[in-house]
């Protein structure tokens, strides 16, 4: 008879993530569960948590080193699962941790294909706002749009959709023109910069108090209604990146070299993904003690 232990049976954790509170899963993880293990179908705990929409557990296991790009036997990542299930908040969590947004399953489908065929509008919009490739074709040579229309509409409806898209394009062009010329308060930064720059650059913008004040006021939402969601989400991703970088600078100086200047350290850390930075933070924290002066200082800075 096969003995099933916590560390050898991921289905134990899968069930806890689906039907039990967060602290139960945390307790199992703290007692040595291997969160990267797969069941026979190739699914990981992250796949189960993504399908059920359990946000806290998704964050927990990603921070503990779960592979966000792990695939099951169908070629599904957790992002595929979340998109197919319409779990938008889970998708946002995965995207914040640099999941491959354009990866395909064994049928050649991206997360956008699955969200489209399942008719989840918010999931489709989330993927597009995060720069997914809308022109990828699957094994049937269909884009996500063509796949949607083949299931839900006729060619006449496709023509209508294309006409609406042309009108939307004109509206987008006009908003982009205004974004390029609209400075954020007393800075040289424009809203177009928030829309288009790399997240690392937006993390730098998040250090400017004027920028933060304007973004939190949300007046831009009426100025740029088509892009306001994208601008908001990109700035929030920049803030997350900034916080991770700030923590990592502290740990870098403690463990590697205190004499490096800030620009040098930031130049090194920019090559790390959010998941890499989290793993660095967790590894460093394991060797810190609550009595360490640096630990207390770091905790104090984080609480401000």
TrEMBL record:
ANK repeats: from-to residues: 41-73, 74-106, 107-139
GO cellular component: cytoplasm
SUPFAM superfamilies: Ankyrin repeat
Keywords assigned by UniProt, alphabetized: ANK repeat, Repeat
Pfam family, one: Ank_2
PANTHER family in the record: ANKYRIN REPEAT AND PROTEIN KINASE DOMAIN-CONTAINING PROTEIN, ANKYRIN REPEAT-CONTAINING PROTEIN-RELATED
Name this protein carries in UniProt: Ankyrin repeat domain-containing protein 6-like
């Amino acid at each position: 008879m096969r003995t099933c232990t916590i560390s050898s049976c991921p289905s134990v954790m899968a069930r806890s993530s689906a039907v039990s509170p967060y602290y139960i899963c945390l307790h199992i993880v703290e007692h040595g569960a291997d969160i990267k293990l797969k069941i026979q179908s190739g699914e990981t705990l992250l796949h189960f948590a993504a399908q059920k929409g359990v946000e806290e557990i998704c964050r927990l296991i990603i921070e503990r080193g779960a592979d966000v790009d792990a695939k099951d036997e169908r070629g599904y990542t957790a992002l595929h699962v979340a998109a197919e299930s319409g779990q938008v908040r889970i998708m946002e969590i995965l995207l914040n941790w640099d999941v491959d947004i354009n990866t395909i399953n064994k049928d050649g489908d991206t997360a956008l294909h699955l969200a489209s065929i399942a008719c989840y509008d918010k999931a489709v919009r989330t993927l597009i706002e995060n720069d997914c490739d809308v022109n990828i074709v699957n094994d049937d040579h269909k884009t996500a749009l063509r796949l949607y229309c083949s299931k839900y509409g006729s060619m006449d409806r496709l023509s209508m959709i294309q006409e609406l898209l042309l009108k939307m394009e004109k509206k987008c062009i006009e908003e982009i023109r205004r974004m390029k010329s609209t400075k954020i308060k007393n800075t040289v930064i424009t809203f177009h910069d928030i829309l288009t720059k790399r997240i690392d650059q937006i993390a730098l913008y998040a250090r400017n108090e004027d920028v933060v004040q304007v973004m939190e006021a949300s007046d831009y939402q009426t100025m740029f209604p088509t892009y306001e969601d994208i601008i908001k989400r990109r700035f929030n991703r920049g803030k997350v990146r900034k916080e991770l970088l700030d923590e990592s600078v502290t740990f870098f100086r403690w463990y590697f070299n205190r004499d490096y200047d800030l620009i040098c350290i930031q130049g090194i850390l920019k090559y790390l993904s959010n998941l890499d930075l989290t793993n660095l933070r967790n590894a460093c924290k394991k060797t810190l003690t609550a009595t360490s002066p640096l630990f207390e200082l770091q905790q104090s800075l984080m609480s401000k």
